């Protein structure tokens, strides 16, 4: 049994939940505690009590703790990557890379602690000085999804601690293993009691308690738009500071002048790797007419060569879907696409493999109309569609015709079009000749429109959410 970490101690939950391997549902990774509302309130109270001393505790202690966490994650990336792949279903190389990314994030923020900002300016009133400083926000509730079980927690927890906040962390119920392993390392990093708390359990219980508690000053959330709206309605109504990262329907524009092989690789990597379970995944290929048929053939051929199998298997390119309910959603959208009249070029069926997992053949639709549901709604699986474009202007209009705005890509050899797209794509992140998914850890991450709310995550820009600015006027 893996317990919660509250007020510096490991505590049993009000219940427990088995963590099931999506590559093999007979493989139970472990049992994980589930907190109830009362235990969540205890964690919030512990964080609140720890905050005054922690915020004054000095930046060296923060830097040392974050460095410790980053170094241990890096040293154990193979072991923890295996755990991650086993519980979430991304391939072992992807799992190891994600743990390594979490390590890099902690080490980045260990350095960031030692680079505090602040300005001193003359006042417009003679003789007076103005000091602008950043202070921690207080107690931060961190609510994360299942698709990046260690990287997303890392990029929320590390800046929260670096900037002097206390944390109550609620990981996705589906993937408590990586979160628990991270918390176990954090528990040995020298943080004072109560600064960091782990409360595993249901969103409707643990998450909801965080949203409602007046002692939680800020909520950073990644997940679905539906839950994001609930975070806004509940925590927003009590004026908590909010940062929401939600869905995407990310376009990849392919122009006639693109290098075909490269465009196919960019498309397949962006749409289907990690089983398409990335908010940055390409799910709309917007392809100019001259290259359209060759691009569709190329993607179909590349997909035929991919191995969908056990996430830990040697040579697996694409692991299983995360669980039955996500698989049902993905297969349901394949049916929807067919019913809407799109042409299923390949894939879209459930696959049987040597183990009892949630395997699905990556699906490609062509002859898709921009009004179809498969072209408008986030599917969050290995399903993508092709929309034909008359020319660059038409492609740009199609790319921007969405309620989302996270990542947008273009494949082209034209500097003019690449540059125009960079300026006019309505997205938080633009990718030129590289997949829409797969971002660096030291630069801002986030989107526009229905994809994001609040300030950016990651890099120096994370300070905007995890601190509050104070302006002090000092007269002699
Ligand atoms: N943009 C992105 O990065 C992601 C988007 N998604 C999208 O969301 C869909 C569902 O995925 P899922 O992970 O279940 O996303 P959810 O939005 O349901 O869950 C995200 C997190 O919010 C928690 N949560 C759920 N209900 C509440 C609540 N009432 N109050 C506070 N927290 C709550 C969840 O807990 P619990 O685990 O207990 O449900 C989880 O920790 C996917 O199919 C996909 O479309 C998913 C993951 C990432
Ligand atoms: O593409 C990436 O590297 C990050 C994706 C992500 O954060 C997500 O899918 O939630």
TrEMBL record:
Residues 17-471 form the Aldehyde dehydrogenase domain. The active site is at 245. It comes from the Bacteria. It holds the Pfam family Aldedh. Keywords: Oxidoreductase. Belongs to the aldehyde dehydrogenase family. PANTHER family: ALDEHYDE DEHYDROGENASE-RELATED. This is Aldehyde dehydrogenase family protein.
């Amino acid at each position: 049994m893996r317990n919660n970490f509250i007020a510096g101690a490991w505590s049993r939950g009000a219940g427990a939940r088995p963590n099931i391997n999506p590559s093999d549902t007979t493989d139970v990774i472990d049992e994980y505690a589930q907190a109830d509302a009362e235990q969540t309130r205890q964690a919030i109270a512990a964080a609140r009590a720890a905050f005054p001393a922690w915020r004054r505790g000095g930046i060296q202690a923060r830097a040392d703790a974050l460095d410790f966490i980053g170094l241990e994650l890096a040293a154990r990336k193979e072991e923890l990557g295996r755990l991650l792949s086993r519980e979430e279903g991304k391939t072992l190389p992807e799992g190891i890379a994600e743990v390594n990314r979490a390590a890099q994030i902690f080490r980045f923020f260990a350095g960031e602690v030692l680079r505090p900002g602040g300005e001193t300016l003359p006042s417009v009133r003679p003789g007076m000085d103005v000091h602008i400083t950043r202070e921690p926000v207080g107690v931060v509730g961190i609510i994360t999804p299942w698709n990046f079980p260690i990287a997303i927690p890392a990029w929320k927890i590390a800046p929260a601690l670096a900037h002097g906040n206390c944390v109550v962390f609620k990981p996705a119920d589906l993937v408590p293993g990586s979160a628990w392993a991270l918390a176990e390392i954090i528990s040995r990093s020298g943080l004072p009691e109560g600064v960091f708390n782990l409360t595993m359990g249901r969103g409707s219980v643990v998450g909801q308690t965080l949203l409602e508690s007046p002692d939680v000053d800020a909520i950073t959330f990644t997940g679905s738009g539906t839950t994001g709206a609930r975070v806004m309605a509940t925590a927003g109504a009590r004026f908590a500071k909010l940062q929401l990262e939600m869905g995407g329907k990310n376009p990849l524009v392919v122009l006639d002048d693109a290098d075909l092989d490269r465009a196919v690789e960019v498309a397949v990597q962006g749409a289907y790797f990690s089983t398409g379970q990335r908010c940055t995944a390409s799910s709309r290929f917007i392809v100019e007419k001259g290259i359209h048929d060759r691009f569709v053939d190329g993607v179909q051929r590349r997909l035929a060569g991919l191995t969908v199998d056990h996430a830990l298997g040697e040579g697996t390119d694409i692991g299983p879907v995360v669980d039955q309910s996500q698989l049902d959603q993905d297969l349901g959208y394949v049916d929807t696409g067919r019913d809407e009249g799109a042409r299923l070029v390949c894939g879209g069926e459930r696959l049987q493999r040597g183990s009892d997992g949630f395997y699905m053949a990556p699906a490609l639709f062509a002859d898709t109309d921009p009004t179809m549901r498969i072209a408008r709604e986030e599917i969050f699986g290995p399903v993508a569609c092709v929309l034909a474009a008359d020319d660059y202007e038409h492609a740009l209009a199609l790319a921007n015709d969405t309620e989302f705005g996270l990542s947008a890509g273009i494949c082209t050899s034209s500097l003019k079009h690449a540059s125009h797209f960079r300026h006019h794509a309505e997205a938080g992140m633009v990718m030129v000749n590289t997949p829409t998914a797969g971002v660096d850890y030291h630069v801002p991450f986030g989107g526009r429109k229905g994809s994001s709310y609040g300030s950016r995550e990651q890099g120096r820009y994370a300070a905007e959410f995890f601190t509050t600015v104070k302006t002090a006027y000092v007269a002699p």
